[in-house]
Amino acid sequence: xxxxxxxxxxxxxxxxxxxxxxxxxxxxYLLGRDKLIRELQPPRDGVVLELGCGTGRNxxxxxxxxxxxxxxxxxxxxxxxxxAQKNIDKTGLTDRITLVEGDAANPxxxxxxxxPAFDRxxxxxxxxxxxxxxxxxxxxxxxxxxxxxxxVVDFGQQERLPGxxxxxxxxxxxxxxxxxxxxxxxELKALAASxxxxxxxHRLYAGYSDYAVISKSR
Length: 218
Description:
8 helices, globular, 7-stranded mixed β-sheet, alpha/beta, Rossmann fold
């Protein structure tokens, strides 16, 4: 069994039932997602890709914020994509948001969109769930336009929060196969250097969340 098939089966199992109330609960602890959407600022008539789009919550919010932009979402979980498509259809954004099932760590997975390069690529609480997360970052960078940006928000290392809080949170996250990436900052900066870009990295909410932007320029 390949890594992608194993991950797909795992994600479908984890979210088979959770997807129906996922957004109602996650809004309380997936902090920084709206900051990411505000700072995307894609160009007019631009194209934006979310790798690991889940229920489509971020794509819908971003599509409403940027009405002159097209959005694309990829997820490895068929169950999540079914929920995402239903949510998108309900909001009347089907003509501006396109979904595909695939592995975020595979650069070829987004070829079906017919978009040669994306102005923005973003990951929202996704890298902590992808076993080969470095490859997922590289895959996004491979599809980035010459003057594009990558935005990332995910769980941080809780540096300035009480030790007991980190222990409880990390134990709870582990039960959902979520692993906050301790070396996320270093990996993002190394990736930026490898593609001739610049990375900014910020710890939000006393280290609860990590937020980063990789910016390319012509």
